[in-house]
Design brief:
Length: 362
């Protein structure tokens, strides 16, 4: 079949730029695509959600389609909030989300699965880069309190004393700061605001969550690509996006102080160090994680992107396909491509639990 762009609609949500996929082969050691039954599942599966994982999903699709023809999946990077809503409404077989299901989301999601529960399955980790555009200033360093002050619009110029303190000896211009944030419900926003709550509660007096909470927190733009483009086009601007977007857009990224007070470069390896301290807070095969935003080692602003999937209860062909695809993404081959894209592969301590949970899907 043709690989390319599709346009579909799930419950009024426009799915633009959906990705086509052919799939799947067999491999019992997780090194390649694995079909749940050992055979290709000739069906079409729809999925939607996290734009943070869109670049990973694109590469997973390319790798997965090499093994078997006859199966299709459309993934729309519509944002975590929209993806969860589409999953709960029964419009997609699985959803990508940059944060685990909230307690108020679990009930409707479980009901959608009918004979089983909805599971949070961590699939890819990564750093949230603080991206900026400031002429003449490279290697910017920012503490959590300074980041909180900037996005709360309490720090308004680039030569503010708080920024100068973080960047001793650096000549900073008096350029006005133009903070940019996500206008759509976003798991990336959820993780950034949770980081600020954990590390700078005296400065960041707003709640965490997928919806941007600071009324005076600058301009809102849709998607990680929108924020990245906005930063690239505006001198004095600052925003946040996954490292893959920063890398693809050739954007400047700030070093961020971790729990030890050391300023860490943003990188996949540094993010993996921080993610290794995460604890499983879900029950059974639900692998919702609690991240340690005060980690003393590595880059501290991290997220883990989940696939929200039914443990049981999908129509048979969909269930087989989802199990096959997630077996691939959580396997050796699927995880091995992530570092080159600016993501962080899951630590073994978490990955083995994910693989066992995926094996139990039916």
């Amino acid at each position: 079949m043709k690989n390319g762009t599709r346009l579909a609609a799930f419950g009024g949500v426009a799915l633009v730029g959906a990705l086509s996929l052919t799939a799947c082969g067999t491999d019992n050691n997780g090194a390649g695509p694995v079909a749940a039954s050992g055979d290709c599942v000739k069906t079409t599966v729809n999925a939607a959600g996290s734009s943070a994982q869109a670049n990973a999903m694109s590469e997973w699709i390319k790798g997965y389609q090499q093994s078997c023809a006859g199966s299709n999946v459309n993934y729309s990077p519509s944002g975590s909030g929209a993806g969860v809503q589409a999953f709960t409404g029964g419009q997609v077989a699985f959803a990508g989300s940059d944060s685990a299901l909230k307690p108020e989301e679990h009930g409707p999601a479980d009901a959608r699965c009918k004979s089983g529960k909805a599971l949070d399955l961590p699939m890819v980790g990564g750093p949230i880069a603080i991206v900026y555009n400031l002429k003449g200033v490279d290697g910017l360093q920012l503490s959590p309190k300074t980041i909180a002050g900037i996005f709360a619009s309490k720090i308004k110029t680039w030569n503010d004393p708080a920024i100068a303190k973080d960047n001793s000896g650096v000549k900073l211009p008096s350029t006005p700061i133009k903070p940019l944030h996500r206008s759509d419900d976003s798991g990336t926003t959820d993780n950034l605001t949770k980081f600020l709550l954990a590390t700078a509660p005296d400065v960041w007096t707003f709640p965490g969550g997928k919806t941007w909470p600071a009324p005076a927190g600058g301009q809102g733009l849709k998607g990680s690509d929108g924020v990245s483009t906005g930063v690239k086009q505006g001198d004095g601007s600052i925003g946040y996006a996954e490292l893959s977007y920063a890398t693809n857009g050739k954007l400047q990224t700030a070093k961020v102080a971790n729990g030890s007070g050391s300023f860490s470069e943003v990188s996949s390896a540094a993010a993996s160090k921080a993610i290794a301290g995460a604890q499983v807070s879900g029950q059974g095969n639900d692998l919702a994680l609690t991240l340690d935003y005060k980690a003393k080692d590595g880059y501290p602003i991290v997220l883990v992107t989940y696939e929200i999937a039914c443990e049981k209860g999908l129509p048979s062909e969909q269930a087989k396909f989802v199990k096959s695809f997630l077996t691939y993404t959580s396997g050796q081959q699927g995880q091995s491509i992530l570092s080159g894209l600016g993501y962080a592969p899951l630590p073994d301590s978490i990955l083995t639990k994910v693989q066992a949970a995926v094996k139990g899907l039916s």
